[in-house]
Amino acid sequence: MANPILITGAAGHTGGVGRAVAELLLKQGKTVRAMVRIEDQRAQALRDLGAEVVIGDLLDLDSMHRAIAGCHTMYFGMSVSDTYLAATVNAAAVAKHHDVKAFINMSQMTVSQMSITETTSSPQQKLHWLAEQALNWSRLPVVTVRPTALFEGSFLILTSDSVRESNQIRLPFGDGKTSPVAVEDVARVIATLLADPRPHIGKIYNLTGQQSENMYFYAKEYSQALGRTITYEDIALEPWRQALLKHGMSVFLVDHIATMADLHRAGRYDRLSTDVLTLTGQAPLSVREIVRKNAATFTAVAKAV
Fold first, then answer.
1. Measuring CA to CA, which residue among 79, 75, 70, 72 is closest to residue 91?
2. What mean pLDDT is reported for the chain?
3. Contact, 148 vs 125, CB < 8 A?
4. Tell me, what's the pLDDT at 16?
């Protein structure tokens, strides 16, 4: 039997990168070891698809030994967390011990604008930059994937309520341009790298969507996808930030999202890359296509008479 490919964060949620990568590889007939935090129906669903499921914690040394032992190739990804750096270093140390041949690291594109003298106010982005430094020092065979804002991880969450309730996109992004990328496009890239990582060792890939435009443009794309008029309202940052906190998001997460809003307004997300097309042979989805795929999330359920 072939050595399994390890996917961390494989349970995730519907639309999560780790889960999407695991499902793609399983459809391709690859041997997949899926690492999840808890035993639940998502873990069982991965077993039903043919994955070997390992229960563990990225911060726990014994868990990482169980997950990595016997794997030559692995994908490391973790959601926004104040323990992100510790988890990265823990995974890297165990990967080096087990002589992993390819470590596909999920970072983020803002890191390309950071350095030892340039940073951002996002605690998560700082941890991503430090994690990349640590992986460089480790001398592991790393491939770095830096997507821009994931549509499902940002726009889907931050705009669905207002679009559903009032046909408005309400964000403090000004007229800054952005190029959100779909989770399925990022997953296709990662699956491609995991299937044949050797030519890509040491490289960095920046992943964007199909276009970089402002939110007034994307409001028209939402309108075309949903068949009704959607408008964009530029709102003040601080009241929006307070609303996210009241919604139950952690301060750490809200600080990260607020920084993303500031960077959008400043034009720092105005970037385009052809890496999705180059690596997979397929162009990334447009915002209109992504919204159409998620139309139910943006559409109010009709009330029974």
1. 75
2. 95
3. no
4. 87
Based on the domain organization, do 112 and 43 belong to the same domain? yes
Residues 58 and 164 in one domain: no
Count CB neighbours of 4 within 10 A. 21
Max distance between CA atoms of the chain, in angstroms, equals 64
With the CA atoms of 42, 45, 49 and 54 taken in that order, what torsion angle do they form, in degrees rounded to the nearest 10? 50
Neighbours of 202 (CB within 10 A): 9
State which residues form the domain around 145: 5-149+182-207
What is the DSSP secondary structure assignment for residue 213, as one 8-state letter? Answer: B
Residues 140 and 248 in one domain: no
The CA-based dihedral angle spanning residues 132, 133, 137, 142, taken in that order and rounded to the nearest 10 degrees: 20
Q: Are residues 261 and 194 located together in one domain of the fold?
A: no
The CATH number for 36's domain is 3.40.50.720
pLDDT tens across 5-63, in order?
A: 999 999 876 458 999 999 999 999 999 999 999 999 999 999 999 999 999 999 999 99
Nearest to 286 by CA among 190, 218, 187: 218
Q: Within this chain, do residues 162 and 267 fall inside the same structural domain, yes or no? A: yes
Q: What are 63-94's pLDDT values in tens digits?
A: 999 999 999 999 999 999 999 999 999 999 99
Domain membership of residue 262 (yes or no) is yes
